[in-house]
Amino acid sequence: MYLTWLDSNSWLIEMGETRILLDPWLVDSLVFGNAPWFFKAERNLQRQIPENIDLILLSQGLEDHAHPPTLAKLDRNIPVVASPNAAKVVQKLGYTKVTTLAHGETFSFSHQLGANQLEIRAFPGSPIGPMLVENGYLLKDLTTNKTLYYEPHGYHSPTLKQFAPVDVVITPIVNLDIVFVGSFIKGMNNALEVIEWLKPRIIMNTAAGGDISFSGLLVSALRGSGSVEDFRNLIAEKKLPTKVVEPQPWERFEVDLALV
After folding, report:
1. How many CA atoms lie within 13 A of 199 on its CB side?
2. What are the two backbone dihedrals, phi and then psi, of residue 36, each rounded to the nearest 5 degrees?
3. Which residues lie closer than 8 Å to 52 by C-beta, 6 or more apart?
4. Residue 132: what pLDDT?
5. CB neighbours of 74 closer than 8 A, spacing ≥ 6?
6. pTM of the predicted protein model
7. If residue 5 lies in a helix (H) or strand (E), which one and from where to where?
8. Closest by alpha carbon to 205, among 220, 219, 185, 223?
9. Within 13 Å and on the Cβ side, how many CA atoms surround 54?
10. pLDDT in tens, 169-224
């Protein structure tokens, strides 16, 4: 298993002999609702989109997870697995192989003829407004039985417990609040809870910005709390064996469970 953090919520996951592009924002700026005055994020360094992608995986339909300019640059024939909300985005862009996963549903994938190599199971994830709950995902390499769980806002369903243990968890470790509104990224305590549930060998932080500059009205209302080091100390106090790995943008990380 190889994991490459591509800044923000974006990842390249290599497992089950499959190259998976997860929640990609890789070109142009990031804005919500075509309102750069409210929020705008820009990459400090333009990067090339990873090549030879076998599968696109989308957890949410918001622009920071299903970024239309990035998705417009990719081959529309690449298979996509998405939450119902994210599926609408890629279908509108003309993608031809879109699988919508509701909570509890699974998808099996093989990029070659023969046995399936990867299983993806959807779980309840982040609430977006009063009526919509997006997806978290459990990925399983069917050739090695290695597993990875991803949820980008720190909302974890208790239904995960029956799938413990999990090898790797990717989720926020640091909290992020909006003044007068409350938390919208739940790190620290929720990450600790999911560790206690899933007993992962490794946990990696996501939604941490990276090599990105931010502007707009919303930025002045954001408040972060906690740090990766605080979280390491919390795990040590609880005597939990999980290793905290702080990913570096665009550096390929080999998951060697024998060394953990």
Report:
1. 5
2. -65, -25
3. 19
4. 93
5. 21, 24, 49, 53, 56
6. 0.94
7. strand 2-5
8. 185
9. 15
10. 999 998 877 876 667 788 889 999 999 999 999 999 997 777 788 888 887 777 77
* Backbone angles phi and psi of 108, in degrees to 5: -110, 140
Using one digit for the tens of pLDDT, what is the confidence trace for 93-124?
Answer: 999 999 999 999 999 998 766 667 899 999 99
Q: Spell out where 16-117 has E strands.
A: 18-22, 30-31, 40-43, 55-58, 80-82, 98-100, 106-109
Three-state secondary-structure class, residue 248: coil
User: Rounded CA gap, 200 and 39, in Å?
Assistant: 34
Return the HEC string of 89-142.
HHHHCCCCCEEECCCCCEEEECCCCCCCCEEEEEEEEEECCCCCEEEEEEEEEC
**Residue in the block written with tokens 């529309």:** 76
Residue 193 tokens read as 């809870």
Q: Which residue has the tokens 């919500």?
A: 32
Antiparallel, parallel or unpaired: β 98-100 and 80-82: parallel
Helices (H), strands (E): how many in the chain?
4, 20
Give the three-state DSSP class for 52: coil
Rounded to an integer, what distance in angstroms lies between the CA atom of residue 76 and that of residue 85? 18
Quick check: 50 pLDDT over 90?
yes
Whole-angstrom distance between the N-terminal and C-terminal Cα of the chain?
Answer: 14
> What dihedral angle (degrees, nearest 10) is formed by the CA atoms of 60, 37, 45, 171?
-30
- Number of C-beta neighbours around residue 213 at 10 A: 12
Other C-beta atoms within 10 Å of 173: how many?
27
